[in-house]
Structure to design on (181 residues):
């Protein structure tokens, strides 16, 4: 792929990350689709070492579409899977941002983060969805921009704080009686 294609893909990633950051709870299916895409992209590229970037993006997009369809058709199952995938994805991104590179036991932090994410989604769905989608959206934006580590961490924290504030305001507004919002 040429540089123009990657710039276009980076712009789409930032836009998608922004939507998940701000509207993750409201557009649950988008969040699940994003998690499917992100996990698919990360693992397809690291496990299969594909030469074709187009095939990599296609397989990751297929995982995202499957996730979004599952979210619509089987919400309870999708909640658990999204929580698991989102929790694992977030833990791996935080580990990378802190400078650790787990090579052999990469599945262990993913499994722990996934379990925590699934439990949060099951027991406190709305707040967990706000929290996990905010963290995941911020991670996608920061990861796409490829900045130096100090700026990445500051931007990540600012995006998380902003996403939490916006999603909390939208959630509280949705709880008001119909005539009051």
């Amino acid at each position: 792929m040429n540089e123009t294609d990657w710039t276009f893909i980076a712009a789409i990633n930032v836009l998608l990350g922004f939507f998940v950051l701000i509207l993750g709870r409201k557009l649950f299916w988008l969040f699940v689709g994003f998690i499917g895409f992100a996990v698919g992209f990360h693992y397809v590229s690291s496990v299969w070492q594909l030469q074709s970037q187009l095939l990599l993006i296609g397989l990751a997009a297929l995982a995202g579409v499957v996730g979004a369809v599952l979210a619509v058709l089987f919400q309870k199952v999708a909640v658990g899977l999204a929580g698991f995938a989102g929790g694992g994805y977030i833990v791996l991104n935080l580990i990378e941002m802190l400078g650790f590179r787990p090579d052999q036991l990469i599945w262990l932090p993913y499994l722990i983060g996934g379990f925590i994410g699934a439990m949060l989604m099951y027991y406190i769905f709305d707040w967990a969805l706000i929290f996990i989608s905010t963290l995941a959206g911020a991670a996608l934006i920061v990861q796409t921009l490829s900045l130096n580590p100090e700026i990445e961490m500051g931007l990540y924290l600012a995006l998380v704080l902003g996403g939490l504030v916006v999603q909390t305001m939208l959630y509280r507004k949705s709880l008001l009686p119909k005539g009051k919002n």
